[in-house]
Amino acid sequence: MPEPVGFFTDTTICIGCKACQVACHEWNNLPAQLGPPQPDGTRRPLPLSGDSYDNTRGFSDVNWRHVKFIEFFSTDLNRSQAAWLMMSDVCKHCVNAPCLEVCPTGAILRTEFDTVYINEPACNGCRDCVGACPFGVIHMSEDPNKHVAQKCTFCYDRLKNNMTPACAQACPTQSIRFGPIEQLKKIAQKRVEQLKEQKVESAQLYGADKSVLGGLNSFYLLVDRPETYGLPANPKMPSRTVPLSSLWSMLAAMLTGLGLLFAFRSRTRGHTETGVRSGAA
Amino acid sequence: MYLFVADPEWRWWIVLYFYLGGIAAGAYFCATLIDLFGRPEDHRLARLGYAIAFPVIIVCGIFLTVDLQRPERFWHMLFKSEIVHQAIGEGWPWSAAGWREITRAPLLKYWSPMSAGAWALLLFGVCSFLSLLGSLRTDGRVARIFRSSWFGRLLQIVGCILGFFVAAYTGALLSATNEPIWSDSAWIAPLFLTSAASTGLATLMLLFHSGQPAAAETAVRLERADLWVLILELVVFAVFLVSLGNLLAPVLHTHHGLLLVVVVPLLAILLPLAMHFFAGRGGTVATAVLALVGGFLLRYAIVLAPPELLAAAPHLSPRSSLSEAQTPIGTAGSVVLNRFSPEEGRDLGSGPGADPGNRTGEVQPRSKLGDGE
After folding, report:
1. Chain B residues close to A95, C-beta within 8 Å
2. Are B284 and B219 contacting, i.e. CB atoms less than 8 angstroms apart?
3. Rounded to whole angstroms, how far apart are CA atoms B27 and B31?
4. Residues B348, A115: Cα–Cα separation, whole Å
5. Rounded distance, CA B109 to CA B120, Å?
6. Residue B234: closest CA among chain A residues belongs to which residue?
7. Would you say the C-alpha torsion A253, B225, B155, B53 has a positive or negative sign?
8. CA separation for the pair B46, B40 (Å, rounded)
9. B339 interfacial to chain A (CB closer than 8 Å)
10. Alpha carbon separation from B210 to B78, B205, B215, B271 (Å, rounded)
């Protein structure tokens, strides 16, 4: 059995070059993201937004990796002061995966590398996983020949052939590191200590311990609050609501049933018994 | 509440399914309770309930299938597709090996409301069909078997429980996500259940009064039942609003949120209640119509409020402060059963978790490597 593997993304050395995003498109044969429909009904590749270096803005059916540009501009007309945080984001391949938990078809499965993989031939497009993922990773394919849930495969085909995932292979700064997860955690911890020595007190790991969905096989080094990077601080498993929903529903069902029972057994004014109970109406 | 989630784009088919499924389930459990415990003179009402439930639930099945992006794979909800294909490859249903394989095919994840709901819907369809069959004639062998025999009684008890389940699980399904509003309250399921009872009774009232001359005593009992259900729905709705806590403020910034918080209780509950108290028997039809319109708007607003909130979130206030909004009766932090699903609490590399093993061998991913590129 292979060792669980993962990504450690050090956002402090991400330069926003998007090589990872391009490599992901290239290896997985993902087409360019399409823009909104034109008046004649056709769709062209996404045009430049003109107000951000982050043109794709988020995950989509064809953007399984997304380089986030978290932009801080001054409010003057020319936006003369600017600062960025950059982060190459991807499916977290959660140890406790919400998408895998809710998937009613068994299309989302866990691989021998402890990654989470969508087996496309089994997916029927119910979209339960889309709402379950707290990171907004999964999107439905707009390709009419597919129409199934799409997300990072952790280059499952490359893993099976002892190759590094395309994004980590392409990253020129080693912001995305690939390897056995326990090894990555040690590297990450050392890097946090190094940053703290350099007085970057806000340096913190996100998803390296069990507090976030049992641990994330793709975890991050951040220098601001997780929400600043679009990461929820304390995401939860979808099934957590089920016991309470069930309990209150059973109570409501009992009260409804009892009310109906009393209402339909009650006598009404002026009513006389017209017959014996026959069973069949 | 998380504002980083994607929108599952559940729209009209799902809204219509939630609404009609509620009517079918509500009408059915009312009918079974009348058959089991009610007065013989009300059995016409029970037959009406069965006549509503089966056709409507069939329509619901069609809506759900159409909503899937791969409708031809609807059966994947119930059976492990890869195992079924393997079984067919081994000669099922004509070979013993095929049968051995197919016994491994049923797929039920009890912790996933969609998975449990798919089975419940199937079984509810069977129960409602048999009940309809038994109610087509007032006497005869079929009526005896499916309504008055021990089997008929068992069918009514099982069907009644399934009816309550079908009425409520759709709400639990919404809560079992990470979408704002839906995942912040465990009260959507009981709210849908009471609304199903109310809309089911409203449909019964409408049809009961539009057919042959209504029996006065039955009509009175029907209205008493409706009054009780409306009061219960009012209480559950109030608790649902409280359970949203300080999310209520951002919710009220959306059109669907306003509809949910202001218009729905008025149309679905308060006006029908007022009609009961002040309009008397003359207002029965209007009461029923109001409850039906309100019940529809309830599903519409609940399903469509989160997407609107997600789209509007950046303009409401800083995302992070919204993300930290607390829900007093919410569920994000309150766990009744800590490990309800095998996925929760699973350790790194320690097993399949909630993966049901829908595979017959090694999974072969699509790859450039195999293409010789």
Report:
1. 346-348
2. yes
3. 6
4. 10
5. 12
6. A252
7. negative
8. 10
9. no
10. 39, 8, 12, 22
Distance CA A23, CA A62 (A): 12
- Comparing alpha-carbon positions, the chain B residue that sits nearest to A26 is B368
Q: Is A34 an 8 Å CB contact of chain B?
A: no
What CA–CA distance (Å, rounded) separates B104 from B16?
Answer: 34
Closest Cα of chain A to B145: distance in Å? 10
Of A148, A260, A274, the CB nearest to B33: A260
Cite the beta strand spans of A141-271 per DSSP E: 149-150, 176-180, 204-206, 218-222
Contact assignment for B190 to A236 by CB distance below 8 Å:
no
Q: Kindly report which listed range (B85-89, B170-174, B325-329) carries the lowest average pLDDT score.
A: B325-329
| Res. A214: pLDDT tops 60 | yes
- Could you read off the pLDDT of B297-342 as tens digits, one per residue? 999 999 999 999 998 876 554 444 444 555 554 444 445 566 789 9
Residues of A in contact with B35 (CB under 8 A): 281
DSSP state of B265: I
Side chain identity at B11, as an amino acid letter? R
Tell me the three state secondary structure of residue B331: coil
- The closest of B303, B289, B64 to B199, measured between CA atoms, is B289
Q: What is the pLDDT of residues A75-99, one digit of tens each?
A: 888 888 888 899 999 999 999 999 9
Give dist(CA A29, CA A155) in Å, integer. Answer: 12
CB atoms within 10 A of CB B4: 22
DSSP-assigned beta bridge partners for residue A178: A7
Instruction: With H, G, I as helix, E, B as strand and everything else as coil, classify residue A193.
Output: helix
Chain A neighbors of B69, CB-CB under 8 A: 124-125, 127, 140, 147-148
Q: What is the pLDDT of residue B313?
A: 72
What are the angstrom distances between the C-alpha of A91 and each of A6, A118, A213?
Answer: 11, 12, 13
Q: Does B176 touch chain A (CB under 8 A)?
A: yes
Residue B356 bridge partners (DSSP): none
Other beta carbons within 10 Å of B144: 15
To the nearest 10 degrees (0 to 180), the angle between helices B113-135 and B150-175 is: 150
Q: Where are the alpha helices (DSSP H) in chain B?
A: 12-37, 43-67, 81-89, 96-102, 113-135, 141-143, 150-175, 188-210, 216-244, 248-251, 255-258, 264, 271-274, 284-316, 319-323
CB contact under 8 A, A245 and B147: no
Q: Rounded to 5 degrees, what angle do the CA atoms B185, B189, B192 make?
A: 120
What is the C-alpha R_g of chain A? 26
Nearest to B224, CA basis, from B53, B34, B36, B56: B34
A224 inside 8 A of chain B by CB: no
For the segment A107-146, what is each residue's pLDDT rounded down to a tens digit?
999 999 999 999 999 999 999 999 999 999 999 999 888 9
Q: How far is A191 from chain B (nearest CA, A)?
A: 22
